[in-house]
Amino acid sequence: GSIADKLPKDEHGGVDADSAFQHMLQKHKIKIVNAQIPADRLKSTQNQLVGAKVAGMSSALDKNPDNEKIRAPIWVSRDGYILDGHHRWAAVVAHDLKSSDPVPMNVKVVDMDIKKLLPLASSYAKRIGIKQQGG
To answer: Residue 108, CB half-sphere, CA atoms under 13 Å: how many?
Structure first.
């Protein structure tokens, strides 16, 4: 019955809150810029990743570097920290290590430093009913 329960779901039943989050940021006049950034220039805010998930995504990129699901934009702060999309980022890093043809990350850069963005995003997720997950 939460707000998140009414949002679109992915093929695994996970909530897709991208549009709602972007709308909230725009409502608060926080600028968002679509860009491409080399994966090795981004910094993680998460220290737990599911290795099998990253390996599977990396393998899929090896077969098709234009894989739309993996290449979908991830959320980053203006100081280069990843807010959401760590598994896709790690898959691109792994792919780039094996390939002579690096794949740039498609990103949505939020015009905030991570120290302000992370609490804002956590508060928003909690308010709409998305529980924080661990790896």
So the answer is: 18
